């Protein structure tokens, strides 16, 4: 092969990299200068310190005790190739301890690893031949197979399965810490599993449970419904209208569209749409025994949740502790089927909803503590809405960072002298993430207009809320500080409020009023209690855990150490079974061309 002179290309590459780097550095310097100017405006969005006496009082009311147990849960996964087999490993593990709330401070007991009974792990071999069926995703060009999709879905299910089991098996466990975003996971999974249910592909459909067979309508209701009468959810609007109507029909009384609208307190303009939506629901899922002149659900429809949860727990138990056969093969509905990645996603959604229901019924506090996030609803939605509603006055726009976290993190360093830790942003409703503010000068103070950010769809309000927090900084050098993290949790009636702002959304024929949770002018006692606990858990003097969450840090280390200990063992077990098999091994050496080519090229480079 003739030699090619690349000296000119190399110098051009270096010059281009230098110019691009200078541009990025100068851009960031300009943002930092802007932060110095708007620092006071950002500081007005922050809340500082904790009230320890108030935290103790709140804990007594919320938990019914000043000392409760907590679980910190994290997971891990891996993917290995053994000839034509892909071997997936997933595991979720928990650390537990106690939290005692006193007027003088919060005492967090030393985290300890839970016994083997409270863990969820599985090593699952799968042939490449079956991969497209189990975790392939349909695209215009065909079926796309991403090997990371299945272990990620399995790991998510392991974490939420462990969390729900943990609080269900021991009523003393009142706090669950997860390295996940509750609200973010739900928002994603509600829509990503829509076609799975609509196309009747879910493995749960047809499974027998103590409350009867799981129906397609059961699955659709479980996907969309998370009712709480005290929180007045779901709100009868837009995509939630027909599901709120189904709730009203659970009593068994036949009701017309107009009667349902009156019963729910919905806008009269929705009457015709509701009738059309319910007929469409019946056409897709056959859930009604009567649709004219009034709607009546089939008997037993109200037990949908019991059936779906029972089926989910049964399948999850089989995946992590199979009595025999393959962990991802389930018998039910007249046949044996694969449990696909889509099925796992749906079961994750069910388990999050189950954990949230447990939170509301038994005074459990699940907290999703997130290390990294690209969310930007604080700056892009909440701040403009506060301005339009007359709750804040702003001199100008904040610098354009790519996330709320990056803005707050950089600001805390640039203006370190005036930003003491711990601090947190006012808790905001998770629904703000799906809102696009619109200026409407005709509205009175305390009101603002919004559209849904995508197809005018707005996430259900008064279900989850979130806050950004920073828990530690050096006393001697304030600019040395921990990362900004995010936590989210369920909304609780009696502790959270939604009367600070009223949002209007023009949706079809109605101008809908939305009342999201917003703790801006006044906070929540529960927020203060959460911050007191998180601050104490972030004080462990370990560089990579300082200002994070020490129990979650240990759970992460536990998950990774178990993987290291067991990886060689389960891969060896797969190799032994393959060696013992009378199958012609040559069949299993049919590798993908790209792997074959890489192997040959590697040998050639090695001489």
Instruction: Give the overall average pLDDT.
Output: 89
Largest sheet: 12 strands, mixed
Low-confidence stretches: 584-590
The structure class reads alpha+beta
Structure description:
With 607 residues, this protein is of the alpha+beta class. The chain folds into 3 domains: 77-201 and 343-370 and 554-607, no CATH class; 204-339, no CATH class; 374-548, no CATH class. It is 42% helix and 21% strand. The chain has 17 helices and 24 strands. The strands form 6 sheets. Strands 1, 2, 3, 4, 5, 6, 9, 16, 17, 18, 21 and 22 form a 12-stranded mixed β-sheet that branches. Strands 19-20-23-24 form a 4-stranded mixed β-sheet, covered by helices on one side. β19 and β20 (447-452) form a beta hairpin. α1 crosses α14 (404-414), α8 packs across α9 and α11 crosses α12. The model is unreliable at 584-590 (pLDDT under 50).
Q: What's the helix and strand layout?
A:
Blueprint: H1 7-43, E1 47-48, H2 52-63, E2 67-82, E3 85-102, E4 105-108, E5 112-113, E6 119-127, H3 128-135, E7 136-139, E8 142-145, H4 149-169, E9 173-178, H5 182-192, H6 194-198, E10 208-209, E11 212-213, H7 216-224, H8 241-249, H9 257-264, H10 271-285, E12 288-290, E13 296-297, H11 304-320, E14 329-332, E15 335-338, H12 341-362, E16 365-370, H13 377-388, H14 404-414, E17 423-424, E18 428-429, E19 435-438, E20 447-452, E21 464-470, E22 485-490, E23 502-507, E24 510-514, H15 525-537, H16 550-580, H17 593-605
Parallel strand pairs: 2-9, 9-16, 20-23
Antiparallel strand pairs: 1-17, 2-3, 3-4, 3-5, 3-6, 7-8, 10-11, 12-13, 14-15, 16-22, 17-21, 18-21, 19-20, 21-22, 23-24
Helix pairs in contact: 1-14, 2-15, 4-12, 5-12, 7-11, 8-9, 9-10, 11-12
